[in-house]
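Human: We require from you a standard protein entry with sequence in single-letter code and fold as tokens, and nothing else.

Assistant:
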Amino acid sequence: MTRIPIKNVSVIYSYRWFFIISLITLSALFRVWQKDELRNLQREILSINIEIKELNEERKKLRADIAIEKSSGRIQKKSMSIGLIPAHSRQLASTWNR
């Protein structure tokens, strides 16, 4: 007849405490990782917002330059000097989003 070995009660409790301490440690590490990731994402969002502002300023400057070029007829003069055919009124289309 075989007997099933009975574990000592103190061994069972030591496993339970080890499991609880491991859970607490893992949850604390996850919390630290989560905060670090959140800070990294906030820095990235801030840098992207700064880049968007810079690109918008550059776009405004380029649009102003295009308006100056159009009003003075420089674009047409340059295109004629390199041998391009002038566009007809039906060929012109605006691609600018306002």
In short: Residues 10-80 form one domain. The mean pLDDT is 82. Helices lie at 9-72, 74-81.
